[in-house]
Every structure is written in C-alpha cells, then in structure tokens.
Amino acid sequence: MSNKINASVAIQVLPNTCENKEVVRIVDKVIEYIKSKNLEMVVGPFETTIEGDYDELMNIVKMCQIIAVEAGAESVMSYVKINYKPRGEILTIEEKIKKYIQ
C-alpha cells in the first residue's frame, strides 16, 4: 500500500434488489471489503469516503461492483465522486470534517 494521499473517493453502491435487508447485507459486504484495505475512511448514510493513492482507490471502486454482485446483487449502480491532485496532497477527510465532530 502506498502512503501517498493524492485522492479521495466517495462511493455509494446501490445493489439491484427489492428487499431492504438484502440491500443492507450486500452494502455491508462492500464496506467490509473497503475496511479491509486499511485506508482512512468514513461511512455515512449515503456513501463511504476513502482516501489514499489514486490508482489504489480506482481499483477499490472497481472491486466494489464485483463484491456486490458476488454477494448476490443481480446488478449494481454506483455513484462515485473523485478528488484527485496528482502533485501534492489533497485536503484529508479529517481536515474537512474535524470541526464538525464532537
């Protein structure tokens, strides 16, 4: 794993399934996968934000689709926001939200 933080990604994974419990179960599998990467992350009610090296994050985004399908989703829609700064470092998650955390 690279220590370079030149990108952050917010990803919302929406499995194609009718049951709310099944959506939660599949999304939990995706979050479990993201967490296994040991990157800085914040799970929110609509999306999960992670930060690190751009190439590593793009691979994680790709794998989130595969994990969701392997967990039982017939298909998946994902919404991704990417902040990329190839020279230097981005504002970190902590820098963005620390004043709001109590």
From TrEMBL:
SUPFAM superfamilies: MTH1187/YkoF-like. Belongs to the UPF0045 family. It comes from the Bacteria. One of its GO terms (cellular component) is cytosol. This is MTH1187 family thiamine-binding protein. Pfam families: Thiamine_BP. Residues 9-100 form the Thiamine-binding protein domain. InterPro entries: MTH1187/YkoF-like (IPR029756), Thiamine_BP (IPR002767), UPF0045_domain (IPR051614). It comes from Leptotrichia rugosa.
